[in-house]
Write a structure and sequence with these properties.
Blueprint: E1 6-10, H1 17-29, E2 34-37, H2 44-61, E3 64-68, H3 71-76, E4 81-84, H4 91-98, E5 103-107, H5 112-120, E6 125-128, H6 145-154, E7 159-162, H7 170-175, E8 180-183, H8 185-188, H9 193-206
Parallel strand pairs: 1-2, 1-8, 2-3, 3-4, 4-5, 5-6, 6-7, 7-8
Bound molecules: the ligand Cc1ncc(COP(=O)(O)OP(=O)(O)O)c(N)n1, 4-methyl-5-hydroxyethylthiazole phosphate (TZP) and magnesium ion (MG).
Length: about 210
């Protein structure tokens, strides 16, 4: 099975490791198949503690564990891979740390040409977005369904969609070719995180791909 398929949960900004683990467990119970550890503010020691805890938890559930931005941290905690944006270093540098068996995902914003280049450099998946307004990244570049459709017809690697995705607007992205939906707010701000994860996961069995 493609390890990049289904609900791709990205961690909320929660500093306390036990509380972060409690929330993530709910998402995994609800069926999140990929977890990305994304934290822009914690100190290195706390990030290591978080990443170690989440590595253990994702193993328990058989979920794919990706670290955002930091290939070194990914290697240190034996994560399944790393996610790189335009300012996060090259695929080659990540490969040098992680080897060929790990996953390297690359942000391509709204540019299919960037995705071709990422694949040429050895990316295992590409991400496009933001598809909808995002309170986490209000200034994010806007992507649209037409470019996703074009990307799907041109690319063989898994495609992740991100940015303001909800259970309501996510189905159209899956129908257009997204293999995974990366979500922050609609998952963690939901009144029932497990039910929200379940709802997102169900979209993948309902929507023709
Ligand atoms: C799955 C996924 N897609 C896109 C991003 C955004 O990456 P980037 O542009 O590097 O921005 P930051 O998340 O680092 O602020 C992502 N993290 N995950
Ligand atoms: C990291 C990132 N990159 C583009 S939008 C975004 C944030 C996604 O969060 P949300 O699902 O809350 O819009
Ligand atoms: Mg980044």
């Amino acid at each position: 099975m493609n390890p990049i398929h289904g609900l791709y949960a990205i961690t909320p900004d929660v500093a306390d490791t036990a509380e972060l683990s409690r929330l993530v467990r709910l998402a995994l119970q609800g069926g999140a198949s990929i977890l990305q550890y994304r934290n822009k503010t914690a100190a290195a020691g706390l990030r290591l503690q978080h990443a170690r805890a989440l590595r253990e938890l994702t193993r328990e559930f058989g979920a794919t564990f990706i670290v955002n931005d930091d290939a070194q941290l990914a290697a240190q905690v034996d994560a399944d891979g790393v996610h790189l944006g335009g300012e996060d270093g090259s695929v080659a540098a990540a490969r040098a740390l992680l080897g060929n068996a790990r996953i390297v995902g690359v942000s391509c914003y709204n540019r299919v040409a960037l995705a071709h280049e990422a694949v040429r450099q050895g990316a295992d998946y590409v991400a496009f977005g933001a598809f909808f307004p995002s309170s986490v990244k209000p200034d994010a570049v806007q992507a649209n369904v037409q470019m996703l459709t074009a990307a799907r017809s041109e690319l063989d690697v898994p495609i992740v969609a991100i940015g303001g995705i909800t259970q309501q607007n996510g189905a159209a992205l899956i129908a257009a070719g997204a293999d995974a939906l990366a979500v922050i707010t609609a998952l963690w701000a939901a009144p029932d995180i497990e039910a929200s994860a379940q709802g997102f996961s169900t979209l993948f069995s309902r929507t023709r791909q």
